[in-house]
Amino acid sequence: MDPVRARLQTERDETLRRLANLTDDFQAIVAASQDTNADDEHDPEGATIAFERSQVSTLARDAQRHLSEIDAAVERVDAGTYGVCETCGQPIGEGRLEARPTARLCIRCAERRTR
After folding, report:
1. What whole-number distance in Å separates Cα of residue 67 and Cα of residue 14?
2. What is the pTM of this model?
3. Of 96, 101, 83, which is closest to residue 15 (Cα–Cα)?
4. SS percent in the chain: helix, strand, coil, step 5
5. Residue 5, CB half-sphere, CA atoms under 13 Å: how many?
6. φ, ψ of residue 88 in degrees (nearest 5)
7. How many CB atoms lie within 10 A of CB 81?
8. How far apart are CA 46 and CA 36, in angstroms?
9. CA angle (83 as vertex; 11, 72 as ends), nearest 5
């Protein structure tokens, strides 16, 4: 397996583990909330449980989004376009790909997009 594909597979495996842990955490929070007072507004624990549930849910959505980015990067590897900026067509720097293996844009185009 080539190093890029291996790196993306490692990233995918780690993200799947993180997502499984977050799913377990979410289920535990839901189970714990079933044993508490259903009135979040007046129950001092209710706000904490709702916050934890929301936070874990957001982290799980982020992990799902990252899985999609990894899958798209693998598709770019297969198509021979991995490491090429989708905006300007120039190579994406090795340092950027090392830091963000799912990067679609070179650093210059990414900076322009955030302005």
Report:
1. 10
2. 0.81
3. 101
4. 70, 0, 25
5. 7
6. -105, -15
7. 13
8. 8
9. 50
Helix (H, G, I), strand (E, B), or coil: what is residue 111? helix
Give one DSSP letter per residue of 61-111, joined into a string.
HHHHHHHHHHHHHHHHHHHT-TTB-TTT-PBPPHHHHHH-TT--S-HHHHH
**Segments making up each domain of the chain, as ranges:** 3-80, 83-115
pLDDT band with cut points at 50, 70 and 90 for residue 1: confident
- Dihedral sign, CA of 90, 93, 98, 99? negative
Beta bridge partners of 84: 91
Q: What is the mean pLDDT of residues 6-19?
A: 97
Residue 91: beta bridge partners? Answer: 84
